[in-house]
Known about the structure:
By secondary structure, chain A is mainly α. The first copy, chain A, is built from 17 helices and two strands. Helix content of chain A is about 75%, strand content about 0%.
Amino acid sequence: MRETLAEWRPAIDEAIEDLVPREIDDEYLESFFGEATYKYDTAGLQRALADPFWELLDRGGKRWRAVLFLVFVEEFGEDPEEYLPYACIPEILHNGTIIVDDVEDGATKRRGQPALHHIYGQDIALNAGNALYFLPLKVLTENPAGLPADRRLAAHEMLTCELNRTHLGQGMDIRWHNEGDAEISTDEYLEMCACKTGCLARIVARLAAIITDQSAAVEDALANYAELTAVAFQIGDDILDVENSLGRAGEFGKEFGNDVREGKKTLLVIHALEESPSADAARLTEILEADENTDEEVLEALSILEDAGSIEYARERALDLAARARTELDAVDLGDETTRKLEEFTTFVIERDE
Amino acid sequence: MRETLAEWRPAIDEAIEDLVPREIDDEYLESFFGEATYKYDTAGLQRALADPFWELLDRGGKRWRAVLFLVFVEEFGEDPEEYLPYACIPEILHNGTIIVDDVEDGATKRRGQPALHHIYGQDIALNAGNALYFLPLKVLTENPAGLPADRRLAAHEMLTCELNRTHLGQGMDIRWHNEGDAEISTDEYLEMCACKTGCLARIVARLAAIITDQSAAVEDALANYAELTAVAFQIGDDILDVENSLGRAGEFGKEFGNDVREGKKTLLVIHALEESPSADAARLTEILEADENTDEEVLEALSILEDAGSIEYARERALDLAARARTELDAVDLGDETTRKLEEFTTFVIERDE
């Protein structure tokens, strides 16, 4: 294993490039997708697939899904170098979902630059995103590590299960966004996060467990660790947005209150709607549902969240989830080196750029 | 087997309803997608998944992909009733691609009514479409026919392969649509059809062969039959649009020349661009690339196609493909009853409503 987790990045990118080269040619298309019945439009597929994909990847991202996978694989006594193509599976899937989510959410920016559909057109972006849902699964067919059939089948069935739930999560999130008056419980919010964000983390953990032939108990524990951690991070993001906004609100020219302006139903909002006096709750709903908000309105919403104790509530929930994630790991009894790496991993991810 | 192919429709729809009920509840969600970590928003998922799906299915469609699958399964000596859930796999996948393609193509109508994204919003429609890419694969995990592991793995690997190529086909098609000056060869056009339309037909054939444990030679022959037939149908559609347009052009108030108005690069257009005098070719490109066309311009484009002999050319190619499809079947030596049903099937599909 490399000295630090960040050092994996070049090797991961090289493995990704083997799956989706920056410059595609006939030889790649024939070997990866199978012989053409007639003739591929190679130049067209460069524009429709490889260009948008690398435009997104070259903007950054720590490839933490691939890194976490490699940490687990090493813990289970295998040489991570041999499993690099498998590490690309969750990473490529994740980038596919980003492209599609940005279209669905009408996002204008991604990693500080225009969202892909603003560069390539919605049709190309969507099709590229969707193509990335199936492209990495081909690794299981190519089978570079020579896995036996039962593990490859288990990997496919796991991916089917988790990718199904990913779409349930996105479906719930979109519906709440479209229907301002939808009543959401905190449990429904946590489920949305567990499905939408957690399932991709679960894929990382379960794939590592499956291909190294771990017991169902170990696979479950790692999956729960990954899901709980992902949900805790999501809540952490929501808290940070409110805290930074309260801190920044006085500063001239600084953006603040993005989540409020977007009308996002975060855990803090759901808590405040349940706990606030009904006049406050109604006012909060009104501000969140408005197409545009003044700075004063955003501040008003933020103080309703503060008054309801929603920041403390969310922080407690996030800490509780993080503690439960650690408990899941304790049950697996990982080696000291892995425990150290997972601590490094947490820091690595928190300082994130996406 | 039923008396006529159309009689399968109620049983197929019932099997589809088992996979995606019209009214979803907690019990379905927990049993199909697995226990919630916290709590599903069942009402939300009704709106985000089941409602758009059944809105589309209730508009019609002959479920011919499921029917063809059942014809093959019976030919191979199995009771088709037992394989109904598997028959739903290509059918649900197909409906998923329709929803997504309509967003990508900016379609306004589908089966005579508003495209789904015009009813539910683009975000819900897209996510529902994408969810349908993974939902039916769950049949292989549920495994109602008790298939051994090797066949389930083979089915997953086949689906990965074909769904990858489906996205290549769509990518090529979109690129040609966006870049009016892209030079396309007839072979590239046929490849686009083989990938975009043919791969879903290949899934039908290969799935039937895999789950009934046929040889690779039989699986290939059926897949080629399905692909060749699908491409021949596509060309047939393109010819019909031109012929009907030439016939209808004089009639007051009738729409004609839809493909020309949409700027579609059909096999006829590609042939005409290659074979026409350069002035005609340039004029044809100009009309296809224009945002709006007068009836006179559409007629002008249609006569360029006529003068270049493109209708005859396309008809010959379609007949040749259909003949090659029959040759593929001859190699398999199907029973008389199956041969009769495949003839019935061709008629059944040609009189289609989508």
